[in-house]
Amino acid sequence: MHGQTRLFQIYYSEATRASLDPNFEPLDNCASERPDWFEYWPMRGFFRAHALDAMCRYGFFSPLFSSKTHLSGRQVKDFVAQAGDADVVTFSPTPCHGAVFYNVFEQGNACIPGFLEVATRFLNAVEPGLRLEELINDSRNTVYSNYFVAKPAFWAAWNAVCDRLYEHAENRSSPLYESLNKTMNYAKTDGSQKPAQMKVFIMERVAPLLLATRSFSVRNYPPFAMPLSKDFDGRLQEIVALDALKIAYTQTRNGHFLREYIERRSRLAAVVLSGHHT
To answer: Which tens digit of pLDDT belongs to each residue from 69-86?
Structure first.
């Protein structure tokens, strides 16, 4: 069994501090020296100021954690406590977004035009052998918004990739500098638009990239107990079926499962995009 767990929740104003879950430790980002890096900035600061305990798991959550997952800090603590010796424990919202795309990078491209091209260029620089078109994420290794708790070994791997991202994004002579710092608008859960730079969208997909390509043991909070996005409300059975087909293909490499997945997700997309929930 594993030892201690430290769960942090980031705040950036007195209002967000007042809204924090009492079962999380507050992590101050009020100074917000680099708001362009969003939650990565206080996480980066923490990792540079503290030596991690090998027997401790660490997690860092945004102020929106509860509204996105419908989970409390107490529920997170209880689930992590019974997660055995897993390297990573995930609490990923909107499982529909994980099911209807091959991987988290294709999903990002659907929300942020041009994202896939920038992500591919960055990953070619840091992981030359990786082919994004062959990467498949399913419910076992998908996690959005960095809603996970992990041992130091995983955080070391995560930081190694994020450090490379930081280096390219901060270095004006890098061929990736302009692309990584390009500001894009993304849709929030309330339907409004918020600006963020490309580098942030890549940073938020480092964890599922590592989970799909490295040998870390994972325990997932039941993904289909999480809220679906509004577009997929009432379509849980179809979402579960799509995920099952991706898992079957990943385990067997039998093209039948991939063809069935493509056909089913095309039918679902046609219905969802038409706005008819029949």
So the answer is: 999 999 999 999 999 999
The pTM of the full predicted model, rounded to 2 decimals, is 0.93
CA 219, CA 213: separation in Å to the nearest integer?
16
CA distance 232 to 240: 12
Cα(236)–Cα(72) distance, rounded to whole angstroms?
23
Dihedral angle at the C-alpha atoms of 16, 225, 269, 198, nearest 10 degrees?
Answer: 30
The secondary element (H helix, E strand) that includes residue 219 is strand 218-220
Helical (H) or strand (E) element with 148: strand 148-150
Helix (H) or strand (E) segment spanning residue 3? none
Tokens found for residue 28: 């101050």
Contacts of 145 (CB under 8 A, 6+ apart): 62, 64, 65, 68, 92, 93, 204
Instruction: Please count the residues of the chain.
Output: 278
Q: Tally the C-alpha atoms within 13 A of residue 248's C-alpha that lie toward its C-beta.
A: 14
Long-range pairs, 193-198, Cβ under 8 A, ≥24: 196/38, 197/36, 197/169, 198/112, 198/114, 198/115, 198/118
195 by Cβ neighbours in 10 Å (0-12 / 13-18 / 19+) ranks as exposed
**Residue indicated by tokens 């992981």:** 127
Count Cα atoms within 13 angstroms, Cβ side, for 61. Answer: 35
The confidence score (pLDDT) of residue 191 equals 63
